[in-house]
Amino acid sequence: LLSGRPKILTAFRGEQLFSAAIQSLLQLKKPVVYFLSGHGERQPADYDQLAGYSRLARNLERNNIEIKTLHLGQTPALPKDGDALVIAGPVRSFSRTEIELLETYLRASGRILLLLDPGQDAGLNALLQTWGIRLADDRVVGLTMTGRELLVTDYGDHPIVSRLAAARITTIFNSPRSVQPLGAAGGPLPQAADKPRLTVLASCSEEGWAEMSPHQDPPQFDAGVDQPGPVAVAMAVEKGATTSMAVEMRPSRLVVLGDSSFVANGALQAGYSADLFLSAMDWLLERSEGIFSAPKTPGRIQILMSRRQFRLVNDLIVIVLPGLVVAAGLWVGWRRR
Questions:
Q1: Is the residue at 6 inside a domain?
Q2: Cβ distance 159 to 224 under 8 Å?
Q3: Same domain, 204 and 315
Q4: How far apart are CA 213 and CA 221, in angstroms?
Q5: CA angle 162, 168, 174 (to 5 degrees)
Q6: What is the mean pLDDT of residues 165-179?
Q7: Domain for residue 298, yes or no?
């Protein structure tokens, strides 16, 4: 080894590569996914160790997806070869013309995966409201390890999360914002044929809440101000699916997640799961086989000790045990005299 240190297995990709091989045989066309740029979005060619999306891009490419980038302000329409569009963490507002392009694309059976971070206003609230989704200037808190992340195991009834729920996979978000249906929190819109059909994909538990003072540290639940859990942080929307003997209409599909950092390079390196993102992409691309699989991170055994405990163990190994060996040798030598 060049570095002189042993190699450490950081991810097992056997299952992913096997699934990708099967998918390449099943699909007739390699799907094309565009990542939007021009508003500070995270990019698939960004190799920044924390904020980049290069690791996620490799996962998509291993699953036989072609990745391209698109600057919305430089095109009169979205490319016809695109099967889905990813908008990951925009920090600047979209222009009115750009929003109209997105509206037109969605109405024409488009597929969008939208990841919106808390504290950022990209000007998409009105567009999302027409699709039955409400955003708020908040952050969702609940089960956590350090106080900054949200551990989610509560999933809805939807093909995107059915496998995650069955396998009890934990999705870790970093202080996500709420993504909820219009009207009552957690309540679906009327299921009329001409209205979008909404499904909550993931939410915090009943012990969590939507903190309406996002910068409050540590967060505290204020009755009458904050929204008690469960609070949705991910939603799927479908509109226009019609199947009959005469016509079959391809539906428009939209997935909105309240955090873009949970699949960034730093998060994936730390062991966060990308399964929710990959499964959402599976659904948008109508990969009904459902064999998307992210690399599995092997378990590690860690010994956590305080400074005092570390000193005691160090003294035991460095001083006490060698001292006992020396004392035993002296005692044996004295006995032989």
A1: no
A2: no
A3: no
A4: 10
A5: 95
A6: 96
A7: no
- Residue that wins the pLDDT comparison between 322 and 235: 235
3-state SS of the chain is CCCCCCCCCCCECHHHHHHHHHHHHHCCCCCEEEEEECCCCCCCCCCCCCCCCHHHHHHHHHCCCEEEEEEHHHCCCCCCCCCEEEEECCCCCCCHHHHHHHHHHHHCCCEEEEECCCCCCCCCHHHHHHCCEEECCCEEECCCCCCCEEEECEECCCHHHHHHHHCCCCEEEECCCCEEECCCCCCCCCCCCCCCEEEEEEECCCCCEEECCCCCCCCCCCCCCCEECCCEEEEEEEECCEECCCCEECCEEEEEECCCHHHCHHHHHCCCCCHHHHHHHHHHCCCCCCCCCCCECCCCCCCCCCHHHHHHHHHHHHHHHHHHHHHHHHHHHHHHC
CA separation for the pair 271, 15 (Å, rounded): 17
Cis peptide before 230 (omega within 30 of 0): yes
Q: Tell me, yes or no, whether 112 lies in a domain.
A: yes
Please check whether residues 105 and 138 belong to one and the same domain.
Answer: yes
Same domain, residue pair 264 and 230 = yes
Question: Quick one: residue 150, left, alpha or beta (phi over 0 = left, psi -120 to 50 = alpha)?
Answer: beta
Q: 183 and 97 in one domain? A: yes
Is the predicted pLDDT of residue 288 greater than 80, yes or no? Answer: no
Span 131-155, pLDDT tens digits: 999 999 999 999 998 888 999 999 9
Predicted local confidence at residue 186, as pLDDT: 43
What pLDDT band is residue 28 in, cutting at 50, 70 and 90? low
Percent of the chain with pLDDT over 90: 63
Cβ 178 vs Cβ 136: under 8 Å = yes
One domain, residues 188 and 155: yes
CA distances 300 to 141, 214, 268, 284, 303, Å, are 27, 34, 15, 34, 10
pLDDT, mean over the chain: 85
